[in-house]
Amino acid sequence: MCEVKTKAENHSLSCRSAMTSSTRLYTSNRFRLVTPGPVSWTASSCLTDKMASLSVSSRLNKAVRQQYMSLPQGQKCQVTYIWIDGTGEGLRNKTRTLDMEPRSIDDIPEWNFDGSSTSQAEGSNSDMYLVPVHMFRDPFTLDPNKLVLCEVLKYNRLPAETNHRNSCKDVMEKIKEHSLWFGMEQEYTLLGIDGCPFSWPTNGFPAPQGPYYCGVGADHAYGRDVVECHYKACLYAGVKIYGTNAEVMPSQWEFQVGPCEGIEMGDHLWVARFLLHRVCEDFGIVATLDPKPIKGNWNGAGCHTNISTKQMREEGGLQHIEKAIERLSKKHKEHIRMYDPRGGEDNVRRLTGLHETSSIDDFSAGVANRGASIRIPREVGKDGRGYFEDRRPAANCDPYAVTKAIAQTCLLDPEEVSLKN
């Protein structure tokens, strides 16, 4: 919860609640707040508040940092291990030195960490294994240094509870003949470290939604520097980033990853998320994947998932798309449980039937319909082949859980499918 206090009165206004005691005036898409009481909101106090919403670390002298970052490191290589923690949403990382640059994932050794500090183990038996699975270039410390995504195994070498990659990989192996492609659209919202949306007015709300989607200009696009730096970091790292755009709510953005085949969808999206958080760290702000960060008449954040098999991409593919949608319609509730890390509880706040979403209680499908559970793009309906979009996954979903569920439902024998976390 974000609290904003006035100078004259020691009361607070919540960024997430309706401001019933105030009148909102909009001029040229800019906002100013008028209240019955003596609220003081001057340009200088606003600037001070905005600076306070940035982290202290981001204000350290970067020129001094660069002096050290440019030092030679000989033949040594820094490898940063990345893994998903016990929340199923958070990412952790730590770095070690290798004697030389690894040429493949096989050259990177397993490592371990304290699972009792990441909600993944008890203190009396806390060592967890980090098993490298996918290597990327490091855009922060540059070549020859690497980032490596890891699976987490418990002391008995069984997958940790939030390691959905292990079972996802098994399913993808079973259906690899279908050449299953995914593309995921990751929406996120930029916040100050005070928890309020980045660049929103200190004591109120910006102008209503409308001019922000794919917008340009300082009064429409909040935080573009973060977006463009993240894009470049993904390209450098080797993440299959497809594009990016400003979203409907101010300070909300989206990037797309794909097309990726099978298990690599989850690998690339998780590393893209890691890069986003690291870029935001440098700028002193926060990226949240909360599916509904601001209550009221503001869009939520999803992770729309595009799906295509080899048959769907060929002549007459539309019939295979329709068959997959029919299968999904029979597993709606099961998929909702897999589409956020809390078994559907997060999506309850987002999938209301409003703000370009379907109702969480009902399954629907349609051509070019962004209010449906499943959207068939207009050009796909016209061409009779291509892909379809599942609009139900929440922004904070685990892509391994989502892609596994879709692959099971659409491509495996229904009798052998059991959707569970």
TrEMBL record:
What are the protein's UniProt keywords? Answer: ATP-binding, Cytoplasm, Ligase, Nucleotide-binding
| All copies of domain GS catalytic, residue ranges | 164-421
Q: Does the keyword Cytoplasm apply?
A: yes
Q: Which SMART domains match?
A: Gln-synt_C
Q: Which domain of life is it from?
A: Eukaryota
Gene Ontology biological process terms in this record: glutamine biosynthetic process
Coarsely, its chief localization is cytoplasm
Q: Tell where it localizes.
A: Cytoplasm
In the UniProt record, which is one GO cellular component term? cytoplasm
- Full protein name: Glutamine synthetase
The gene from which this protein is expressed is LOC106529419
